[in-house]
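The data layer described in this paper is built around a simple, fixed record for each protein. Because each token names a local backbone shape, the row as a whole describes the fold. We quote a single record here, exactly as it is kept in our systems:

***
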Amino acid sequence: MDTELTKKKPLRERFERLFVPVSINPLILFRVAFGAALFIWALGMLLSGEVYHQYVEPHFFFQYRYFKWIEPFPAVVMYLIFVLLSIASVMIALGWHFRLSVLTFVLLLIYIVLIDKAAYLSYYYFMLLLLIMLLFSPAHRMFSIDIIRKPNLRADYVPKWCILAFQLQIIAVFYFAGMSKLNSEWLFAGSPVNIWIGELLQYWDIEIGVGIFSTLSIIISWVLILYDFLLPQFLLDKRTSTKAFGIVVIVQLFGFILFPVGYFPFLIIFSTVIFLNERLIYLLISRVSYFLYDIFQFKTEIFKARGGIMINYRNKKLFPILISIFFAAQIIFPVALFLKWGSKKWATSAFQFSWQLFINHKEGNLTAWYFLNDGKTMQKLNLNDYLTTQQKQRMLSDPNLIMQFVEFVNNEYKMQGKQIKVFASLSKNGARSIVLLDPRKNLELQIEEFPKKKQYE
């Protein structure tokens, strides 16, 4: 009986620690930094022309199975959507109509994600998860315009789980990234790192010995794996969190320069500010708060960082339980897939909700011919008539996208009374190509049989 009580007591004590009052400052800094990161992304999409290339220029979109009714609006509306995303992100950072701005960003982001599979990036999922958590968080209850409007919102302390939940969400990205690399190609062949390094060396016209090149690739692969698994421990430790954050900045910037990882490194850098030393965060927010206080001369001290108001929840256990379910749903699905298939699946669709970013280097080839009206002369199909450069690149790395496009083209030419032949092959991490579609075989039968090939799920 005593043994059972002693076992229950540590569990109860750990649960109670989740409700220990901690400073709200890390959550405030995260809100500001994450809002800034979202603004840079949305504005970058507008200024770089990506809105046009991804949502206006294409004549064909890779649709999701249950969302085929979702299509892009005319160009003016698509640009307006990203302007609204930019405005909403600024409002998030400022804590101005906070919940409305977060909800607006979530709904608009979900819409643009569902337009085209080829435009999907794994960090969109990461953004959505953090936004959903922000929507229900008290991240606007200090250092925000909302508390100028409604001073009674002010809170200086929150239960520990409010901060820990965001930290665990970010840490999950590191662990899943590390887990996805636990295969023979990463561990013993240094692939696909060797392909990326080879492309860099070729670009800079640098030659090194085969042995050195192979060893360097394996070493970098192992360093990246250790980084994913070990760094979270140092981020969570208050004594090493600031230095660990510095390592995150350095590694992510190198990753951005050396590898094709897009905007993801900056999103991680801006997000991990929540791990910074609380004293450092307090000093930063205090100085900015007093600076703003001196400029605008607020009637009360609601904008200052110092205070003693604690936020209380009526049902203490409800939110931790909901957060546990939230995390469990995220973890069970990708872990189950990993245990079933490992990380050698061809399609990214099975793993796109577990941040397994660029764990494989995929290349493909698609050549299609159609018969002219005489039924004998064959003409090569010009993919540029249907797809943008980005769509072609994404399609040629995913068997499911290839089959969706081929089915579309086949139906279109069939309506014109023409027949098409298709050759499609795929290669992963420099390995020998496999034939996905054989022009000597019946195309419609191959399309029909494709869903039964479990390796492409």
In short: The chain has two domains: 12-180+237-341, 362-456. Residues 12-180+237-341 form one domain. The radius of gyration is 26 Å.
